[in-house]
Amino acid sequence: RAKQWYQRRVRGLAIVERRDLRSVRDLNRSHLPMLKELRDTCLAAIKEKFGVPKSLLRVYFHYQPAYYHLHIHFAHMRYQVGAPVIGKSISLLDVIQNIEMADDYYKRATLCYYIKDGHALSDTLDKHGMVVRE
After folding, report:
1. Could you tell me the CA-to-CA distances from 88 to 8, 68, 103 in Å, in that order?
2. Secondary element (H or E) of residue 74
3. What confidence score (pLDDT) does residue 35 get?
4. What's the predicted TM-score (pTM) here?
5. Are the C-beta atoms of residues 22 and 71 closer than 8 Å to each other?
6. Angle formed at CA 24 by CA 22 and CA 30, multiple of 5 degrees
7. C-alpha separations of 51 from 57, 74, 81, 93 in Å
8. Fewer CB in a 10 Å sphere around the end CB: N or C, the chain?
């Protein structure tokens, strides 16, 4: 039981060494080998250290990110604290597939995301008429 509880709390963050990559917007086909290697290396390390198979892990980017230095989140499917939500995260698998379809996918794509009222970014976007309220 304790092992299962521990495994469900597995979370990790892979930070890309390159400083010129700030978010998914900077990614293109030339970055695919790096993304795939990072994915494979991290998934193998998590499996070895914690015994959690890749089928039980979420692997994703936040958009907008909390900080602008490209990083990838790894979290157990059952771990809910800080879990990715619609309009906040993009699966690494989706990022890879989208770039394979179109090299400049993230330069051209409209990416919707949710932010709280009162957030500095929300206020700035609101001033420019870019906030959609439902």
Report:
1. 21, 15, 22
2. strand 71-76
3. 98
4. 0.80
5. no
6. 95
7. 11, 14, 20, 21
8. C
Cis peptide before 64 (omega within 30 of 0): yes
Strands lying side by side in the sheet with 57-62: 11-15, 71-76, 57-62, 89-91
Instruction: Of 11-15, 85-89, 101-105, give the lowest mean pLDDT range.
Output: 85-89
Structure tokens at 127: 């001033």
For the beta carbon of residue 5, count every other beta carbon within 10 angstroms: 9
Confidence bin at 66 (pLDDT 50/70/90):
confident
CB 74 within 8 A of CB 12: yes
Q: Is 62 a catalytic residue?
A: no
Q: How confident is the model at residue 24 (pLDDT cuts 50, 70, 90)?
A: very high
Give per-residue burial for 34-49: e unless 16+ CB within 10 Å, then b.
Answer: ebeebbeebbeebeee
Whether residue 11 is predicted with pLDDT greater than 90 in this model: the reply is: no
Single-letter code of the amino acid located at 104: D
Kindly name the residue from 31, 62, 71, 76 that is annotated as catalytic: 71
